[in-house]
Amino acid sequence: MNIHLPRADVAEQTLAIIDEFKGLEGPLLPILHALQDEFGYVPQESMPVIARELNLSRAEVYGVVTFYHDFREHPAGRHVLKLCRAEACQSMGGDRLADRAKALLGIDFHETTPDGEVTLEPVYCLGLCSCSPSAMLDGEVHGRLDDAALEALVEEVRR
Ligand code: FES
Hints:
Blueprint: H1 7-21, H2 28-39, H3 46-54, H4 58-67, E1 79-84, H5 87-91, H6 94-105, E2 111-112, E3 118-123, E4 135-137, E5 140-142, H7 147-158
Parallel strand pairs: 1-3
Antiparallel strand pairs: 1-4, 2-3, 4-5
The structure holds FE2/S2 (inorganic) cluster (FES).
FE2/S2 (inorganic) cluster is lined by residues 84, 86-89, 125-126, 128-129, 132, 134.
């Protein structure tokens, strides 16, 4: 779920989350996860607040957000399709499936379809390696994907 709030409210919520985790050793990742849980993504407006409160540069905060594939900088679409890009899935045709999904949706990884319906994300192992290649659609895992199964998933979210 994405939550959109006025800038001042985002800053206020961000401060509340920072206060909750500031005492931890290495508080940045827990703060970013909590923000993403709260808003569905890490709002741009949160980054300077985090930098100020943790005494980091904005570039350092931004660097961590962009380094980890889990964090989104923009609100996600109504549906999130995650395709596994890790080794077992790659060896079972994951690359080809990823190309197919991109073509079907007309977007690349980390993008959302223009109608706001579907966000496509890479994920690095869903723990379903024995059923490679696998994917997760809105939190539900799908194994042994072939072209037809992938097309059915895409059709499901485009309906
Ligand atoms: S490598 Fe894809 S589920 Fe583990």
